[in-house]
Amino acid sequence: MISGKIATENDARNGLAVFCLKNAGNEHKAFEIDLPKLAYLTNEDDDSKELIVVIQAESTEKEVLIGYRNPNGGNGAGFLCEFEFLSNEEIESLERN
Fold this sequence. Notes:
Blueprint: H1 9-13, E1 29-30, E2 37-42, E3 49-59, E4 64-69, E5 75-79, E6 83-85, H2 88-96
Antiparallel strand pairs: 1-3, 2-3, 2-6, 3-4, 4-5
């Protein structure tokens, strides 16, 4: 997990980060969010939602990129607008089920 800093190539290579942005410009920085964080990733094709764990968030001049792990295995990345972060109440509800 990478929190409070941008990921290096080494971080990605060692599995601590999902991606490493090169030449992202002067405005490239860590996105201010407490990590890890549970979220739903929405599939635009069928509006289905997949529960994931956000482990990385970085902003550039144009966008915020999110790196995540799927609890069933695998990694992925997407744009901030594709994620719906769970509230504490929603997380507690998941834990009860």
